[in-house]
């Protein structure tokens, strides 16, 4: 079995996770990385024995022989980096979102579809064992037809300062584009329905400093879907207890809750505060296994020459819906989505 | 201490609960009941040693010396029965809603306010120990300012047939007026804010027979409140696991969940289905103690000549908001509420 | 229905609870109290409108016409107070234990049995809704035959100082006699078996000050029962999180846990400590309803002239087993119990 | 980094797990397997591309160049297979127990210690994230000194038939040697104390067919440890809800429960049975990650030439205690353990 040579573009928080996961995959070589920060590059080179290290993405593509690239650069560069990789005939694993503008994304998808390369999008929740367990229960009819789905993504308040610093430098795209795309994808994936109308509300009570950044600390979206499903979505940045990602599905025959409490593990602590279940503290902890699983699936897809279940179109839909949420919030009105 | 003489009007499911609770209160006599069904009256007379039994409300008021009346008749009669009781100078405990039409309610409130009688409205959740515990945490600042509140009231599917029969005979007022008024009251009570805009959605997937009755099986309302709070509300009639009444409050410093699972008691059962917490099955079980507590408070208010915290205006607001929810659902549009 | 006149003997912590509960019972009058502390007596007289207040138990019996007495005096006086009440032909509600010495208890039981009076023993857990729910599941065969039962009673560390002060003045009888009798009764009640052999261990790590008092802070007993059941029992005085009373039953078809976590209510709190279920803090809170229910049952037994399910013999057995536990701990050996 | 060549001896249920985990480890080659069943061998050869397949352990050692061997053969062969591997100068990963007889184990340990080879024993719970989290809390003093530890290992009833078939062919060593050694190791590991006295009880109520096999379906052991700790241990074979492995630690400042309910994942299901947390169904599911982690640690130890934290002596102690439990049960007496 031929060793797959993969390069990682971008070594931010998530890029480092992907680099480590690729390094640990059997049959795979972390052949190259490209990243602006030379200090980080040096550490990664040593830690994962990376033969080729660049500060420039295009140089990496030009100078190293690769089978695939893992794109974890800032969102604004994604479509360009996808196109460059396609020109080099590389398989692509790309973090969400595909891009920030709908037309740009559509053109990129055209190019992806014209190629025969594997394109894998980083909707890692689809590879989390809890979500997969729920998906299987739903698909096997155990809770009947879905009437309602509710999904929360609330970041821990510990991360607020670093988010503020980040948002001051470059626009995040807003709460819905930055955070809710995962929930939007989960909603579409579990219900097999498209979202037709949205109404978004929100507040900055817990982080008034976000007002001047035109960002939201807590946002809510109510969605009507095709097939008579309602979806409720909450996104936030200030959970005291940790990283709260929860999804509830109410079906005609039963109800599921995925991670109603963000349990860190199976330990309960009884102390002066009561009976406590410690919480997951951040996404690398909560989705550690899902991040490994999606890369394993990427490798499997390449080896079996099979497109992954999650498609570039799923990425486009997520962006379209998130933009409609932002429009609804900005105008305080119902927004119908026309794909 | 003088014994309080109380009459109960209406001996449906909830009327029987109130009758029993009044019978068991110390210092109180269940002096009379009025109710159409003579068979039920006979049983109640025997069980609770009721000296005066009537099939007609007015006769009860005319012929029995009472201090107070507990009105549990069908909602359409409430305002009339309140007025008749006020004419007899009786203190009034009235089940929600005060009435079905806003103008009628307003006039009734006028008459209540002109009298010096105690008027106690049956929003029993305000007397439930779980809600009171949360209320105290909120009011003492333990979760900071409220940003979001979510409240579910989902009836058990076991009660669906009897609801359908009931709704065939007399209109329930619709899901929002019939069920959500409790959640609306909880939202107003906990946030101390008024609701300004609503959007309601819903479906009958689990009970298509409700379509022809113009009823909803599952409804969702998103609400904007004064003071920058969003509220999410779900009402339903087909929970498989029991009577699911849950309220979540997200504050700037923490989050509370009241009855996230409708635990029947403190017992966990481990059997072939997994690790199970049995669920409350209906409102008389879930709110047994709250129903007693609200009557104790009614008696206390009479004895101490003090108006209860929950007012007739709270009842009016509940109806106004519920009607706006219905209007939003019917027209599939945002509805602003002007009080 | 004749009003029952009840006197309460002893107004310590639990005596006050019984006094209040009797005061609130319909059809019952809190006719008299006897208690050494005149300040407490004065408060109780006012709060509950008690017509007759004594500092001497015999005087109360002599001078007040009573139907029944509720004995909550220090354990060392119980048998004497029972005998005096029987001479006055009173029905008796007596707190556990009946007495401290086996022979004394046996003679007292003889006198109880010769009388036709109702004798109700304060094993309130038999009247707790959680225990009753489990009992019903067991008796209806839902978990098959019982193989193992585990029962914990751990007092909160907040109460340690007051216990130390109490134990300095008068011997508690030791951890097993003072605390475990409730678990012993629950074990006998749920399994319908007698305990034949015990081995007890323990430590004072969390409260070394108990060493000089010859008391235990944490004790464990393993028990063999007739009918091939094993019981594990833990008693303690230093729980950080509250008042931890838990019972587990492993049957051949399933397993039950009663209050695996001592949930104070149905509220979950999410804050910087994690996902928290607040805990019950002391026995008056945990068993508030059970204390009411046992008195209701006492009244019912008197009115229906029916001996209660829990008997004086149950009290004797509890003491016999607790003494065997103490003997086992003192001698570090297996002790067989011969009734 | 040199690729490590590892052979697996024994391809039963657990052997297959180890083979797969070794196959997936980066920097490691599953170079050979030896196993009696040729059909299984054929499947494994194909699935994991194993170059060398044997039906005889010694042949594998003779004919294949290996760095290490993973011994998962029947317990009765362990000491012999360890000695043969040492002669070939191989590093050894050995499943528990090291052997069935104390003298034989002691001689084997002598030989292990005389060699410079890494010897890693399969106490995988030490590599489970939940146990490690608890261990860290304990070691950092967060629950104070340990007073009591309780540990359950209850197999699912689904596995009973296959156990009965297995036990008919070859003796399991009994419930305590077969199952409780993991709990005994956890108790010693977490408390850092040795077990000095034990009393064991048990029953076959749920599986009377075990009587004739001289096996136990449910066993209980109470243990006194050095350092004033008591341990309670339950082992069983007939849990209705799944694979129940739970450990509780009561310290002077708090209490921990590891997997109080054997939660399969983070999903809660609400259906006609109540609010359900699905359970882990068997050890490969519950300890999937721990099995991977212990092999990673084995590889790390080899590469860094460092003996693992878990030693051969830990294996000996487990066997000595388990044998004492069996002796206690057989004689219904306290048994002191002299190491």
Automatic annotation (TrEMBL), chains A, B, C, D:
InterPro entries: Gfo/Idh/MocA-like_OxRdtase_N, GFO_IDH_MocA-like_dom, NAD(P)-bd_dom_sf
Gene Ontology CC terms: cytoplasm
Cross-referenced Gene3D superfamilies: Dihydrodipicolinate Reductase, domain 2, NAD(P)-binding Rossmann-like Domain
Keyword entries, A-Z: Oxidoreductase
One BP term from GO: NADPH regeneration
Top-rank lineage group of the source organism: Bacteria
Domain GFO/IDH/MocA-like oxidoreductase span(s) in chain numbering: 131-257
MF (Gene Ontology): nucleotide binding; oxidoreductase activity
Domain Gfo/Idh/MocA-like oxidoreductase N-terminal intervals: 4-123
Family per similarity comment: Belongs to the Gfo/Idh/MocA family.
Protein name (Swiss-Prot/TrEMBL): Inositol 2-dehydrogenase/D-chiro-inositol 3-dehydrogenase
Lineage: Bacteria, Bacillati, Bacillota, Bacilli, Bacillales
């Amino acid at each position: 079995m031929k060793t797959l040579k993969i390069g990682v573009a971008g070594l931010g928080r998530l890029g480092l996770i992907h680099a480590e996961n690729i390094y640990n995959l059997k049959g795979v070589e972390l052949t190259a990385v490209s990243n602006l920060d030379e200090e980080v590059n040096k550490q990664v080179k040593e830690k994962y024995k990376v033969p080729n290290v660049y500060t420039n993405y295009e140089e990496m593509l030009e100078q190293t022989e690769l089978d695939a690239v893992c794109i974890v650069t800032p969102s604004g560069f994604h479509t360009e980096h996808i196109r460059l990789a396609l020109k080099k005939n590389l398989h692509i694993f790309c973090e969400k979102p595909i891009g920030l503008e709908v037309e740009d994304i559509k053109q990129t998808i055209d190019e992806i579809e014209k190629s025969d390369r594997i394109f894998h999008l980083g909707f890692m929740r689809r590879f989390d064992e809890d979500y997969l367990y729920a998906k299987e229960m739903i698909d096997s009819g155990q809770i009947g037809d879905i009437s309602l789905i509710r999904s929360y993504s609330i970041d821990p308040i510990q991360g607020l300062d670093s988010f503020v610093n980040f948002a001051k430098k470059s626009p995040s795209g807003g709460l819905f584009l930055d955070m809710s795309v995962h929930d939007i994808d989960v909603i579409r994936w579990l219900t097999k329905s498209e979202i037709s109308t949205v109404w978004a509300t929100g507040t900055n009570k817990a982080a008034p400093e976000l007002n001047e950044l035109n960002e939201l600390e807590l946002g809510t979206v109510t969605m009507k879907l095709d097939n008579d499903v309602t979806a409720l979505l909450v996104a936030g940045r200030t959970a005291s207890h940790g990283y709260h990602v929860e999804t509830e599905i109410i079906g005609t025959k039963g109800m599921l809750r995925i991670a109603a409490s963000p349990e860190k593990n199976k330990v309960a602590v009884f102390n002066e505060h009561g009976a406590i279940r410690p919480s997951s503290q951040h996404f690398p902890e909560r989705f550690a296994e899902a991040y490994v699983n999606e890369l394993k699936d990427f490798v499997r897809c390449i080896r079996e020459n099979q497109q992954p279940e999650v498609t570039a179109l799923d990425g486009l839909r997520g962006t379209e819906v998130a933009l409609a949420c932002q429009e609804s919030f900005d105008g305080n009105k119902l927004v119908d989505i026309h794909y």
